[in-house]
Amino acid sequence: MKINPMWDKYPLIKHELGLTLALMQKNIKTDNEPVSKAILEMINSGGKLLRPAYLLLFSMFQKTDRNKIIALAAAIEILHMATLIHDDVIDESPTRRGMSSIQKQFGQSTAVYSGDYLFVVCFNLLAEYASDFRGIQQYGHHMNAILNGEMTQMVERYDLNISIDQYFKQISGKTGQLFSLATFLGAYESGNKIKFAKNAEKIGLNIGVSFQLMDDILDYTDNSQQIGKPVHNDMREGVYSAPLILAMAQHKDLFFPFLKKKNKMTDQDTEEIAKLVIEFDGIKKAKKYAETYTKKALIQINDLPDKPAKKALIDITRELLDRQS
Amino acid sequence: MKINPMWDKYPLIKHELGLTLALMQKNIKTDNEPVSKAILEMINSGGKLLRPAYLLLFSMFQKTDRNKIIALAAAIEILHMATLIHDDVIDESPTRRGMSSIQKQFGQSTAVYSGDYLFVVCFNLLAEYASDFRGIQQYGHHMNAILNGEMTQMVERYDLNISIDQYFKQISGKTGQLFSLATFLGAYESGNKIKFAKNAEKIGLNIGVSFQLMDDILDYTDNSQQIGKPVHNDMREGVYSAPLILAMAQHKDLFFPFLKKKNKMTDQDTEEIAKLVIEFDGIKKAKKYAETYTKKALIQINDLPDKPAKKALIDITRELLDRQS
After folding, report:
1. Which of A17, A171, B50, B188 has its CA at 20 to 30 Å from residue A275's CA atom?
2. B94 CA to chain A: closest CA distance, Å?
3. Residues 6 or more apart in contact with residue B85 via CB below 8 angstroms
4. Could you give a GO molecular-function term held by this entry (chains A, B) (predicted)?
5. Domain end (from A133, A152, A184)
């Protein structure tokens, strides 16, 4: 089982993430070999597993049945994979985590059904392990918000006048709500009071938003990533993120001629835009926002009871802000 | 609210199907106007609403909270719509129920998210109204089987040697399991014993299989349907159904030259095949199977307690076998 090296410093989390992956694998059992194979490869591709990790961490403020918590961690990562696979269908993305995407390898049909299948696996895990309807209902509520975020992003594609508020609404939905579901479930299902769980949910939202901001920044600054991801594909697909939106605000005339070419933009065009983004401080401004959200999360985490998990939460949340890839 | 005229003879069911549609509408609330509009149009397109109707009927053997039952009926029809929308993405089908499909009208992305969104709406209704985890778990179990059926159908496309057993496995999954989920939920959630609900589940499976057989037969015999559906599109897509499989069994050499053209088949090719299917008794043989499954269901229904719902179940199940469209 390949666990991302970022967890080497946290042996307990690393151990439980290993169990999470094993349980995910165990639950993938379709009669359909290509689908199973594709999903299993994706499980083993060494993703960061941040959502299950935060779920695990927020469950550690109480003594609780670890098997149940690990099953819920598996559910949340499986839900995340389902959304990734369907996003790749929509973006017609050829790659995912440096590998050929399911969509590219096995075709669109397999990708649509694989995503649907993972939704069901997630559902089954929740139905088996959630302690009450509250957890289940919360899941539905977040899924709703995640999809609304994704659909809003879809509708606002190629909107040259997209505001930073619209961007935040999109990412609060598509990324924030998945993180906040993870932190809520971890807190709630380990037997914490609803007040604690609602607080965990708020912290998760801030972490998720900061994480997405950093991800969008790294699209411009991380050269290593270009192996795994098509370069500035989002831009070509009309998905404009914080660095671009913030840089473009005062200088639309410079950006529009390139962006107007939409998916006909050449690599040179996107490179030109990337230069403009840096020139007009898009990265710096976006990083400021990420810092603000991380800081909010850290202040909230600081108020949590003093348990070993608290220290890990602080370290990891800080690390995510400073990461280079 | 447009209710299919097939329910005119059953005023109580018709009334509750009206409430079911109203509740479905009420639960479609996305920020995304195209998605909402597309889904609402589909809700009002006058489908037969068989799955919710069977759920309602199987809930009438006990006195129970009708609002709850209607919510679950809405959930089951919404789940059905979700699978239809994703099927249309996979088939790249231009039409659905005589209208332009969501896929065709709004593009593939909207269709993928619309289906996902409906899965979530269904999930939320179940989480709110199901009386315990048993119903929820059953739902997951059936969804799994439905998807396995659909994925098997996808993999077995263009298999010129597909057997009738393979076909039955496909339709037991994709159609049978949705019907049997409906009948199970109706029986179980109205407070019947698990034994009764398990029996209802079996009956639903037989009804669903018979229904799908008839649907596949009508693809060859119902001329009116050609307004709503592309003619023999399934054949071109490599999905071979009972009439074709049964006619082809002894005469593969006659069918193969046409079928081998796969999606390059012309309308003339598919017409030739349709003629061969009739010539070699594909319709007759498939009808025999449909009769067998309907008979099985009717014998099982006959053993149910004597309530008004029993009479309606018998009539409707018979009617489905004899329908011409």
Report:
1. A171
2. 16
3. B42, B96, B101, B102, B103, B111, B114, B115, B118
4. metal ion binding
5. A133
Residue A148 has which token pair? Answer: 């609304």
User: Hey, what are A204's tokens?
Assistant: 């998760």
Closest of B233, B82, B79, B144 to residue A32, by C-alpha? B144
B151 → closest Cβ in A35, A124, A133: A35
Name B9's Cβ contacts closer than 8 Å, sequence gap at least 6.
Answer: B315
Which among A151, A170, A178 is the top mutation candidate for probing chain B, defined by the most B β-carbons within 10 Å of its own β-carbon? A151
pLDDT tens-digit map of A114-154: 999 999 999 999 999 998 888 888 889 999 999 999 989 98
Pair A90, A214 in one domain: no
Please state, in angstroms and rounded to a whole number, the distance separating the CA atoms of residues B16 and A141: 27
CA distance, residue B227 to nearest chain A CA (Å): 26
Q: Are residues B185 and B232 in the same domain?
A: yes
Total number of domains in chain A: 2
ipTM above 0.85, yes or no: yes
Contacts of A110 in chain B (CB under 8 A): 151, 154
Are residues A98 and A60 part of one domain?
yes
Full domain range(s) for residue A187: 143-325
CATH number of A13's domain: 1.10.600.10
Check B34 against A148: CB less than 8 A apart. no
CA distances from B300 to A87, A138, B192 (A): 45, 39, 16
